[in-house]
Amino acid sequence: MASVPRDLVLVSTPIGYLGSGRGGGVELTLASLTQGLLARGHRLTLVAPEGSSLPAGCDGVALHTVAGGDQPSWQHADADGPVLIPADAVLPRLWERALALGEKADAVLNFSYDWLPLWLTPRVQPRIFHLISMGSVARVMDQLVADLARWDQRRLAFHTHRQAADFSLPAAAQVVGNGFDLSRYQFQLEAGGALGWAGRVAPEKGLEDAVAVAAALQEPLQVWGVVEDPAYAARVERAVPPGTIVWRGFLPTAELQKQLGRCRALINTPKWNEAYGNVVVEALACGVPVVAYDRGGPGELLQNGVTGWLVSPDDRDALLAATRQVDAIDRQACRRWVEAHASQAVFAERVEQWLDLTLAAGDGSISRCP
Ligand code: UDP
């Protein structure tokens, strides 16, 4: 239980309603943190796009849904591109509601990677905190994160050190990792299954490299996730013999973990500085070793030779060689790492400690910068 139960307003991503999969890993992060903070006795309000429903196990959370169109994702923005907020976008409406609710709350916790909430933070009375969900993607966002960090870095937390290193920060980054409801991931000892890949099917995820490994081994690759970029998916498929990719679609966690858990390895091929890499940890939770590029979150989370293999980024030959050696990895060690470092409870406690750095006065008022 928390030493001080707080009133917290959580603000979801403006890309897709909760449950759509369009929000990527943020959806699962939000669900697991909501459950974890509830279990610690906090009182929660969730603001999310229309169509969202409360994640399982979150009864007691006040849900406010807001209508409006999706925000264009920063993942696919030009590095020098502008801030875009389309007409009828849900983003400003989410923040209008969050700020109103935040007046009476101890803090507002933002999960969206967007210009507006960051810009608002030093200019409004509600205390807004940001769990930054991506690394550097555009200069305008980098600048804003740096400006906010100079104003009060305690308002920012990151998933991994590698992600945080993308930003110009005056002090050491607050790194909170991520967390998963491990009761939903069944450990599977059986090691002889197929090769798997999971994630949004989009260029920054590098599916083509995992597919090349499967093709070289003359075996199929099971692929789970939202096809965000159909033209890219078609290009990847055309480059390998028919039948190499087995499209499994976007599955709810219960089904995903069942299928994923049967794999002998997950191949993870980020082409960008992945902030964390939920699917890596979900695979480990099922006992599935991960073969990944040593880049971004996966490179920080995996223990080379213990929970999988890390290879030089973009080196397909090394990826292939490592995939041939997954039998050397103890599946129990994979699950053990997740239990120790990435459970929902551990994550919620880390987030609570981060918020406490600023809210430590205990009366909801902001404490002074050290
Ligand atoms: N996912 C899912 N069903 C699927 C495939 C993926 O629910 O069939 C979820 C997965 O649980 C993970 C998210 O999609 O939470 C992908 O998150 P990740 O951090 O790997 O990448 P992001 O999309 O955030 O860049």
Please indicate the percent range of residues in DSSP E strands (runs of 2 or more).
5-15%
Question: What average pLDDT do the residues reach?
Answer: 95
Number of strands: 12
SS-based class: alpha/beta
The arrangement of helices and strands along the chain is EHEEHEHEHEHEHEHEHEHEHEHHH
The unique ligands bound to this protein are:
uridine-5'-diphosphate
User: Helical element count?
Assistant: 13
Helix content: 25-40%
Instruction: Just give the CATH class of the largest domain.
Output: Alpha Beta
Count of the separate structural domains: 2
CATH architecture of the largest domain: 3-Layer(aba) Sandwich
What ranges have pLDDT less than 50 throughout 5 or more consecutive residues?
A: none
Gross morphology is globular
* Ends distance: 27 Å
Indicate the radius of gyration in whole angstroms: 20 Å
Q: State the CATH superfamily name of the largest domain.
A: Glycogen Phosphorylase B
The strands making up the biggest β-sheet line up spatially as 3-2-1-4-5-6
Features:
370 residues; Rossmann fold; 2 domains; six-stranded parallel beta sheet; globular; binds uridine-5'-diphosphate
Secondary structure layout plus pairing:
Layout: E1 7-11, H1 25-39, E2 43-49, E3 62-66, H2 90-102, E4 107-110, H3 115-120, E5 128-132, H4 139-152, E6 156-158, H5 161-164, E7 195-198, H6 207-216, E8 221-224, H7 230-238, E9 245-249, H8 253-260, E10 265-268, H9 278-285, E11 290-293, H10 296-301, E12 308-311, H11 316-323, H12 331-341, H13 344-359
Parallel strand pairs: 1-2, 1-4, 2-3, 4-5, 5-6, 7-8, 7-10, 8-9, 10-11, 11-12
